[in-house]
């Protein structure tokens, strides 16, 4: 039974997008050596993310870092009979060792949301954490892909870009805000309401990664569920935007979206690794440097490749409701981006 479950989990990671058939041509035997680092590996997102990345056959070395608790997490996952070797690093004095030689760095570090908190309430704590970690990335693994999970992503990605610019290591092709959970939620909610099999659903989600800045493009969803009314599309959009709050409130002060976020983070990391390995046609939504709108960063579909971002794809055709949503989100997203840039340049 355990073997069957493990195969199922691996299969889910392998089949996360339409180009799965091409991607599965990479087995663990033929895949190159890849070191993945998780910064914040002992936290609520970090632990399940560490487990999921240990299950990924594309990972050869798994480096788990946090300010405390990582030796235990690493010992635990290291007993799992998969390809990668897991090593735990604890404390700032070991951050450099954790990062050296990394191909991909995933950052779920920071404090989680609590009831009544917005992602902006997290800013003052998490912004400082992200700034420090990105300073170390610039020093120890300047060429690694960076997947930013720490909220508020609309601000932490601009912070990271400014830190890398100051260090002279910034490459816009290698910095990603992970918005995959918005896509995961949109797919799930759409499939449930439209009564279509969720495994075959695809819904692009653009904009940012907080509240009204999250814009699911249900008009582009496949397969089309023609039975959905305008009112249902509005309700689905709202639920996707408020998905994080839904989980925070359901956990009643005991956490935020950790398990679903870890799953989404693992899906996006898997896509990045496949891009690095030269698998063709790997496309995921992500918050990246962009010219799709007048804003310097924006989430849209991105083609991934050997250098990270291969191509930032346009928005495509939007419904009138989505056009309104796009206009409405721009001022708030602009403010969040500017807030991050200002913070990074204060000291």
Core attributes:
single chain; 347 residues; alpha/beta; three-stranded antiparallel β-sheet; 12 helices; 44% helix
Radius of gyration: 19 Å
Low-confidence stretches: 17-27
How much strand content do the residues show? 15-25%
Compute the number of helices: 12
The pLDDT mean sits at 92
How far apart lie the N and C ends?
54 Å
Question: What would you say this structure looks like, in words?
Answer:
- Helix 3 crosses helix 11 and helix 6 runs parallel beside helix 7.
- The chain is α/β, with parallel strands linked by helices.
- The chain has 12 helices and 11 strands.
- The strands form 3 sheets. A 6-stranded parallel β-sheet has the order 3-2-1-4-5-6, with helices on both faces. The chain has a 3-stranded antiparallel β-sheet with strand order 9-10-11. The chain has a two-stranded antiparallel ribbon with strand order 7-8.
- It is globular, with a radius of gyration of 19 Å.
- This is Malate dehydrogenase.
- It is an enzyme of class 1 (oxidoreductase).
- It catalyses: (S)-malate + NAD(+) = oxaloacetate + NADH + H(+).
- Its main location: mitochondrion.
